[in-house]
Give the backbone structure.
Amino acid sequence: MYQTDPPRSPKDVLPTMYDLPSEDPEEPGLPDQFHLLQPRLLDETFRPQNYPSDEIFVASDLNLYYDPRHPLWHKRPDWFAVLGVSRLYEQQDLRLSYVVWQEGVHPFIVIELLSPGTEKEDLGQTLRDIKQPPGKWEVYEQILRVPYYAVFDRYKYKLRVFKLDGGRYAEIALSESRFWIPELELGLGVWQGRYQDVEQPWLRWYDGTLNWVLTSTEQESQQAQQEKQRVERLIAQLRSLGVEPDVD
């Protein structure tokens, strides 16, 4: 390739999401149910107060292309969030993948759901073959420099959070399996409850009052319950005045 004068930017000369593979032929099929439901709950409750909803991009099991020198190298985080970018690629298309050199903004937080087959790589405990692409830990910490990295053990229901500190990840000591992220005005924690008719510990976001951020379904249920209570109070007031309301 001939150099131009002045040089053209990587955004102009390197592949876009339309040019790069969006599926991995070595990993056919869909994720298991936990890997489908848990990211969905994270999506539904991720509402940073200091960013408009159209400037927040979240994704799960989506190719994340991170190295313009090796444009085919990618990772597939279980869940990640990028702040300050359009929800749509160039404000018009749903993304096929997230290509860092085209977007210009790195993920702010990445979450991996641990399982026996991925635990060592997720925690940076594998030795790298120099002939192979770097592992997840190295990509998130050294290449993308993602400010926050969290891992959630789906069998022990244990949350671990790492924060970039001096170029390296430092593990945060958690209190009650919760961690507050001031830049988001949100916290991440382990919640015991029922989601999609499954009762178990789940990872979800909470707000500054330490209340779990509600999903749209939970909001509708809460509003219906509040309306029912309002009607019951009104009926009681009418009866106290000697008026029997027509509740039909």
